[in-house]
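Pipeline run #58 for the internal structure catalog. This entry was flagged by the ingest filter as a single-chain record with no existing model, so it goes straight to prediction. Upstream metadata was stripped on purpose; only the residue string is passed forward. Reviewer on rotation: M.T. Logging verbosity set to normal.
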Amino acid sequence: MSGPLQRPVRRRAFVLGGAAAVGTAALAGPLATAASAAAFGWSDDGSNYVVDTGANLVLKVSKTNGDLTSLVYRGTEYQGYGGKNSHVESGLGASTVTIAQFGTTILVSVAHGTLKHYYAARSGENNIYLWTNKADTSVSATRYIVRVKAGLFLNDEPDSYAYAPTVIESADVFAKSDGQTRSKHYAKRPVIDYSAIGWTTGSVGLYIVRSNHERASGGPFYRSLLRHQSTDGGGLYEILYYGENQTEAERFGLQGPYVIAFTDGGTPSSSLYPGTLTTAWADSLGISGYVAASGRGRVAGVGISGRDTAYAYTVGLADSAAQYWGSARSSDGWFSIGGVLPGTYTLTVFKGELAVHTTSVTVTTGVTTTLNTIAIASSNDPANATAIWRIGAWDGTPAGFKNADLMTYAHPSDVRAAAWTGNVVIGSGSETASFPAYIWKDVNSGLLVHFKLTAAQAAAAHTLRIGVTTAYANGRPRVTVNSWVSSIPSPPTQPSTRSLTVGSYRGNNNTFTYSVPASAWLTDTSQYNVLKIDVVSGSGTTSYLSAGTSIDALDLLA
């Protein structure tokens, strides 16, 4: 496989920033305490609870709605743009807000109907720890937005939301004057590939360190908003349930902690990252839904056999209440996933982003459940089937196809995108790179694949497979081989919202199979057979919002 999206090894923490690379801050803890720091404590100014961490950070939380109304770091106010505060979702409205001090921790608790939200500040730290407990759908989404004043950080990265002059889709995707596109949706990286997102000037950094997404939905490869910046300020996001391109039902319960972290310009201390962050100090704070480390278990596997060592493998755990994941060691497939709530989970092994094995595992409080070597059946990896020809690689992504990498941070109409045409000839050597990652009914339906067969091959029926990673508006492929036309396949279950135009190919992987009879092939072996791929659906609108699908791989089996 070739192409810009190929990533055989990617399991490390990424931190997104808006300046040139800077080293990790040299910190003994989350941040060293300034010699001139004020005393740790809190006060009431009438409208807000004011918390001084005793380091370089003073924050205010509204007593009426639980918004974060002020973030002063080293004397500079960072909170606020467009007259808006930082808050859960787009603001909770009237809430009950209380404050309490537990030794070296101050906890602000916010109750809004069935939703509970918490801010915790620790003496001597420039961090704010946050938890959100959403019990039902009375609040539409689960996200926290840190709203940052304009002019403090320079950012025009591909995942930024620059208010460009031309709206090209749904008032949230824009085109700049040079033809490049921007949207707050263009996260570029799935959740497994980052631990913190933010900005740095080189001397000051502001980040959100994500939670473990225990009760989020979508698994390790979910993409959603990370940050945006525009003329009136910027935003950093912790997205836990957004209702866009979601592949799973919403989970409820306590999420967190996630952390708003100020640094001296470097990335946040690795001690804050998911899988590393420990909060034993929070065990006795009375946070609704909080489960201490002692109430959790672990799953460990001695290895995974049947792997393709060219790919990274991930092990996921999921049930209706929680989700977890961990990387399998490249040498033998060993894995360990800790901090798991007790319960019975579906364990899934992913090759890249393609599920190749599932089983069930039960997690018990205080116990490590050890699994013997997991054997991936040869038939579970479609790449193991012998093919006459194959375009792309079976890894659950459109990696290597034309425009695949660009589509995680740009709109399909972007000036940087190659033409969405893509007829290919098998044997040319450029089949995958020439074939478009996405196919739409109203844009490039009718793509052609030209190939020759030997006499023996032409005398037999064959199975044609087309793997997809998601679809929009029930788009699915119907094929024509020479004069033979397949039936229209039923659409698989896919997210009902936009996907292909908002930076995500991640839906539900599905393989369409077509039994092509021997009578369909040309008997003259010097001639090219022609496969035509059309996207069919009665849904969608026009252009890039017509019915469409993302391609994982396609092949003709021997």
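catalog note: Confidence is low (pLDDT under 50) at residues 1-37.
catalog note: The helical segments are 431-434, 455-458.
status: ready for reviewer M.T.
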